[in-house]
Each structure stands twice: as structure tokens, then as C-alpha cells.
Design a protein that fits this description.
By secondary structure, the protein is of the alpha/beta class. It contains 13 helices and 24 strands. The protein has helices at 22-31, 48-60, 85-88, 98-105, 124-132, 166-176, 192-203, 235-247, 263-271, 310-317, 337-343, 373-385, 405-411, and strands at residues 2-7, 13-17, 39-42, 64-67, 70-73, 82-83, 107-111, 136-140, 143-147, 155-157, 182-186, 207-209, 215-219, 228-230, 251-255, 274-279, 282-287, 296-299, 323-328, 347-351, 354-358, 367-369, 389-393, 415-420. The longest helix is centred in the N-terminal third of the chain and has 13 residues, at 48-60.
Length: 421
């Protein structure tokens, strides 16, 4: 197991290239199960979660070949329809193979997914939607066992307690592409990652209308073919490096970004005292004045402020003078990082789904423990500005979602290194 050791106090300046979006790549890779033909996926980040998906494909008998940032799904049929616990238990997005397997092979046996510990994330909407399409689904010994003679299109309302579900929307769209008739998904997720999946499926020959809207119509087809596609830039990685520039009073130019996908993030950074300059696919960020400002942040489904940036902006607001309030509307229990930030000297109180952040003059380095992917990033951000040495333990979470984060930070002036525990 690895840890990251950070000596804080260094101002970050320079340029960083943003990698492809993990949360777009995983469903798109899963979608290649809908065809027996070759698919070429470009701009795929080199991450633990991508490797996990490759292991699932290997178990299913589907060959994936990686060439730098290009992933090739080789042509050929497959017969295995089980995604086992020992692989699926490490990654939430593993559930994305359920819809494609059911649509293509009429059966699927998928273990309940794992992933980060950020509060309850039920899969009821996945099962509700697939049942509506005609799947017979049971849950036995921790496995989702699904069968169907023929999926059939239907009107489906995909609303959950905390809004639309990205992965459930992805599963339903993929399953509906090969269903008989027309499927209409109401209250569908509209995140850029869902739009990217929809655009890839269109290239495969799917008939989809309303991509990017909350009502999506899919006309089922008999067969999908192979396609080439380039994954969109990672909007959460972009936001994380924006926070790195702001928290260190630095000046970063982020390249290969998609500014239109992160308008809620850029708006919030401007509100708390940052200058954000956008030029096509580049973003330059730095502080407007010496000090940042307090702010109010509420996480919402897209196009609102993303829950995956909640922990990172909390680190930033922890050193912003005044009182900030962060309200978590997506995963109300996603606050495990608060205790670790407080260990670094932050002053944060949790009241229900609200984090009350009283800005402090400085943070002080110490040993902290990462609880999930985005909490890992938040602790690293805090370590960048903390006085002295900060050691972030259990950074295997980080490797699931950030490609070469410490190398990218080191290249723009951070004193950060990876060590074995």
C-alpha cells in the first residue's frame, strides 16, 4: 500500500494536461459488449478502475488491448455472462455491464458493486428500469440474476430520492438500444458523461433522441456495430487542479478541458475570489486578490455543482476567511473527510447534510487517512498549503480516479512524493 508525502507551502505555477474522464470511459467500455465488432476508444485514462473493467472483460471472454491511451475492444463473440464478486466488489461502475449483457445475451449474473464509502448508493433504479423493459430479476447471495426472452421498450420514470441516477440512466440507455420498440426514459441524468455515452452509441448505430436532456427516447435496433470514439476531458480532474491553483495562490493553465461542462464549478470559483480565463479548451486560474472569500455551495445533479467536487472545495474554503456552508444534496453522508481536514487544523462542523466551515489562517501538516477517491484529493489539496509535512495514507483510492496526480502536481512546483507504507 502506498502513501503520499507532501511538504506544503509551494506555489503552483505552470501547465497541466487534463486526462480523459473516468466516469465517461467506464460506461462506454461497457457499451462495447453490445456488439461483436471491434471498437476503438481513445483518450482513455490509465487508472485502477479501467484495469478493473478490463479484468471483467477478460473474465467474460472479451479481449481488450491497450495502446497508450487507446483501448481496443477486439472483434469476436463471447458467451460468459457473469461478473464475479472478487472483481465487481472493488468498483461501483461495474454495474454498467448489467444492461449490455442483458440486452446482448438475454441474461446476466452480476455481483453487487463496491467502490468508495460515501454513504448508501442503492441500485434500485437500475433494477426498476430493467424490470420495466421486461427483465426477470432476482437477488441471490449477493448477485443480481437477470433473464429475459426479449427486452421491450417502455416509458420509464427514473426518479430517485436524491434525483436522477447517472449509472442507472447509462444502464437503461444501453439496454434499450437492443430492445424491441421504443423506450422513453423520464428524469434521465443529463451529465456530460451520459452525453458522451449517447454519442458513442449513436456511432454504433443506436437510435437515440434527447441526449443531454432529462427525457431520452431510444428506438431499439436489431444490431449494433463497432465504432471509434474519443472520451471527453475529465471535468472533476479539471476542478481539482483549479482548486490546487487557488489553494496555493498559484497560477495554472489547464489544457484539453471542456469548459462548457464545468460552468457551475467555474462560477463558484469566481464567486470565492478567483480569476478564471477560458479560451476554447484551456482554462487559466489564479486568485483575484491575496485572500479568498467565504461561500455557499450546494451539490446538485448536472448542471449544478457536482458532488464529486464537494470535498475539494471544502479544503479550499477551510482557509477562506469567514463562514462557508456546504450542503450535500446527492450523498448526504459524504462527509467522512471532515474529521481528517480538522486534524490538519481546519474548523468544520457537521450539521445534518450541511458542513459549516469557519476559515482558518493556516493548516498544519500531519498524518491523515483517505476514505474515498475525492476525499483523497481533498486531503492532498490541504497538504499542499499546510505548514510542514502532510502524509496521506491509503491513496489506493486516488489511483482509481486520477491519472498521475502526484506527477502532474510535481511538474508545476509541488513537493510531493509517493512512498510505500
Amino acid at each position: 500500500m502506498d502513501k503520499l508525502v507532501i511538504n506544503g507551502g509551494h506555489v503552483l505555477k505552470g501547465e497541466i494536461d487534463i486526462s480523459g474522464a473516468k466516469n465517461a470511459a467506464l460506461p462506454i467500455i461497457a457499451a462495447t459488449l453490445l456488439t461483436d465488432e471491434e471498437c476503438i476508444i481513445k483518450n482513455v485514462p490509465d487508472l485502477k478502475d479501467i484495469s478493473t473493467m478490463q479484468k471483467i472483460f477478460e473474465y467474460l471472454g472479451v479481449k481488450l488491448r491497450r495502446e497508450k491511451d487507446v483501448l481496443v475492444r477486439e472483434s469476436g463473440s463471447y458467451n460468459e455472462t457473469t461478473a464475479p464478486y472478487d472483481i465487481v466488489s472493488t468498483m461501483r461502475a461495474s454495474i454498467c455491464v448489467l444492461g449490455p449483457l442483458l440486452a446482448k445475451k438475454s441474461k446476466a449474473n452480476v455481483s453487487f458493486p463496491g467502490g468508495c464509502v460515501i454513504g448508501p448508493r442503492p441500485i434500485d433504479l437500475h433494477l426498476k428500469g430493467l424490470r420495466a423493459l421486461g427483465a426477470d430479476i432476482s437477488v441471490e447471495e449477493g448477485y443480481i440474476i437477470a433473464n429475459t426472452k426479449q427486452l421491450k421498450g417502455k416509458d420509464i420514470y427514473l426518479g430517485g430520492h436524491f434525483g436522477s441516477s447517472v449509472l442507472a440512466t447509462a444502464n437503461l440507455i444501453m439496454a434499450a438500444t437492443l430492445a424491441k420498440g421504443t423506450t422513453v426514459i423520464h428524469n434521465a441524468a443529463a451529465e456530460p458523461e451520459i452525453q458522451d455515452l449517447g454519442n458513442f452509441l449513436l456511432k454504433m448505430g443506436a437510435q437515440i433522441q434527447g441526449i443531454g436532456a432529462h427525457t431520452i427516447t431510444i428506438q431499439g435496433v436489431k444490431k449494433l456495430h463497432g465504432a471509434q470514439h474519443t472520451i471527453i476531458p475529465d471535468r472533476i480532474e479539471t476542478g481539482t487542479y483549479m482548486a490546487a491553483a487557488a489553494i496555493t495562490n498559484g497560477d495554472l493553465l489547464l489544457r484539453n478541458t471542456a469548459p462548457s461542462d464545468i460552468m457551475a464549478i467555474t462560477d463558484k470559483f469566481r464567486e470565492i475570489g478567483c480569476l478564471v480565463d477560458i479560451d476554447q479548451n484551456t482554462i487559466r486560474i489564479r486568485r483575484k486578490n491575496k485572500m479568498l472569500k467565504a461561500g455557499a455551495v450546494t451539490t446538485l445533479t448536472y448542471p449544478g455543482f457536482p458532488t464529486d467536487m464537494q470535498a475539494q472545495i471544502m479544503s479550499l474554503l477551510s482557509i477562506s476567511p469567514g463562514i462557508s456552508v456546504i450542503t450535500e444534496k446527492i450523498y448526504p453522508e459524504r462527509f467522512i473527510h471532515i474529521s481528517e481536514l480538522n486534524r490538519l487544523g481546519a474548523n468544520i462542523i457537521l450539521e445534518g447534510c450541511n458542513a459549516i466551515v469557519k476559515g482558518v489562517k493556516s493548516l498544519s501538516g500531519t498524518d491523515v487517512m483517505a476514505s474515498d477517491l475525492r476525499a483523497s484529493a481533498a486531503l492532498i489539496l490541504a497538504g499542499l498549503v499546510a505548514r510542514g509535512k502532510t502524509t496521506v495514507h491509503r491513496v489506493y483510492h486516488l489511483d482509481r480516479g486520477y491519472e498521475n496526480l502526484e506527477k502532474k502536481l510535481k511538474a508545476v512546483g509541488a513537493d510531493i512524493k509517493r512512498e510505500k507504507e
